[in-house]
Design a protein that fits this description.
- By secondary structure, the protein is an all-alpha fold.
- The protein is built from 10 helices and 2 strands; from the N terminus they run H-H-E-E-H-H-H-H-H-H-H-H.
- 68% of the residues lie in helices and 3% in strands.
- A hairpin with a 2-residue loop joins strand 1 and strand 2.
Length: 297
């Protein structure tokens, strides 16, 4: 069972990676390697620098290497964690780790049973994959804003964004993959003719507009929430970003560092709810859309 799960998960993962960069627009201006921007930032330069991607030009166009790397890294973390717990699983009294994983799997399985009315065995592993992968990508937003970018600068990486789901390419890569699955099941269950009639015989092209809106809303919702959360963390970090802010005050940096810490903790606690909620919403909408694809109208 677990081997089948890994196979299906890997298929979804690789399908998701293919369309990741279709919306990339950066040029070599934001290339990965080079001299660090500067040691001290004004507020606008600080935010602009942290919103810049590590970009590499390829025959496919500009690639956001940082987003792809952290998305793949989070997928590997998810796969290895669940694989190791699956190997150590026992029929006896489970340990804390196994119990936690079983709670997650049972929770996802209940959501699928309550929402999805088809017979495909792909949906439950897919829902688990989406929930955990999106959550782990979102979780990167809780790391200190400058921690990984500063570490990158120490090895010559000029730009680095560490939240994959705050990149429109990643969120649309996921939503387009879900959209392709919707089309696949719609054609498989209803046939090409039946699916075409369903789209054609709705007034004012309502059905076609609804189908096109699904991947757009899925991708934009996740991107918008995580981009806003990332931006708020950057605004909080401006308190200690350099002379661009602190020279306005004559009290030194310590009070502002303390204020940054307090505001950061408050927003992190609130943002934890958001990242969980967004992972859950993305998963549930995927299940709902795939369930609708199995229904005859």
């Amino acid at each position: 069972m677990f081997k089948n799960f890994i196979t299906k998960l890997s298929l979804f993962f690789f399908l998701s990676v293919i369309p990741l960069q279709v919306f990339a627009t950066e040029t070599a201006e934001h290339s990965c390697f080079g001299k660090s921007y500067e040691t001290e930032y004004s507020a606008d330069k600080y935010i602009a620098h942290h919103l810049s991607h590590c970009t590499v030009d390829t025959f496919l166009g500009p690639i956001h290497v940082d987003s792809v790397f952290y998305a793949v890294f989070m997928a590997v973390v998810f796969l290895l964690t669940f694989f190791l717990f699956a190997r150590k699983a026992s029929v006896g009294v489970p340990g804390k780790g196994q119990s936690f994983v079983e709670i997650i799997i049972e929770f996802i399985d209940e959501q699928v049973k309550d929402t999805y009315h088809g017979s495909s065995k792909l949906i439950a592993p897919l829902a688990l994959t989406i929930f955990m992968w999106v959550f782990l990508m979102n979780f990167m937003d809780l790391l200190p804003v400058d921690m990984l970018p500063k570490a990158g600068e120490m090895v010559g990486i000029k730009y680095m964004r560490v939240v994959p789901s705050a990149d429109l390419n990643i969120t649309f890569g996921l939503s387009i993959t879900v959209f392709l699955l919707i089309l696949y099941y719609s054609i498989k269950i209803k046939g090409i003719g039946g699916f075409a009639r369903e789209l054609a015989f709705q007034p004012f092209g309502k059905a076609m507009i609804e189908e096109i809106a699904k991947p757009i809303s899925l991708g934009l919702r996740l991107f918008g929430n995580l981009y806003a959360g990332e931006l708020i963390f950057m605004i909080i970090a401006i308190f200690t970003a350099g002379e661009g802010i602190t020279y306005l005050f004559n009290l030194g940096v310590i009070p502002y560092a303390l204020m940054q810490f307090v505001l950061g903790v408050i927003w992190a606690l609130f943002h934890l709810i958001i990242i969980l909620l967004q992972a859950f919403i993305f998963m549930m909408l995927t299940i709902v859309y795939l369930s609708m694809a199995h229904e005859e109208h």
